[in-house]
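Progress report, Aim 2. The chain analyzed during this reporting quarter is listed below.
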Amino acid sequence: MSATHTLTYTRTHTSIYVSDTMRNVLRNIVTAAGLDPTDLMDSWSSNLGTAVRKWLETGHLAEVIIEFYLSGSSQAVARWDFPISYDGSGCDDDMWISKRHIDRTMDKAQKPPANAVYRVLLTCSPGAPDVKGMGDTEFKSTTGLTSRPSGTAISTPDIMAGLTYWRAK
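Predicted structure tokens for the chain:
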């Protein structure tokens, strides 16, 4: 019984940390792109943040993605992927974000045009519980972009978020 309680407590605690940290990383990416993060913060305060936290707790969140595109276009002009894994570092007090690594990666990544818009997408593994306000959507095309895996952005004892950015070929 103690092991189940410890795992549940740890997962709840780390889910909050990863969710809050992910929100801040996404806000920094949007701001560095010269765009207004208000829509991100508003949606995070409602259903987006709820979905991220819930699906991290249940182990169903597979990836957090932010796409930048021109209004009305089906083509992404820039993109960031944060694949989620549930193996973590295994160390009880090991919770960190690699801010300098993320900042260096932002310097390498392609900035979207000033008139771009953005959206955050979440992918889940099968069996994820429903979250009000969340539904299916299509990804923007990445034709003309290439992905660049860039290591780990966020780490906790049981959850890790990787980092991949997309830029023009």
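DSSP finds three helices and six strands in the chain. Strands lie at 61-70, 76-85, 96-97, 116-124, 145-155, 160-168. These observations will guide the mutagenesis work planned for the next reporting period.
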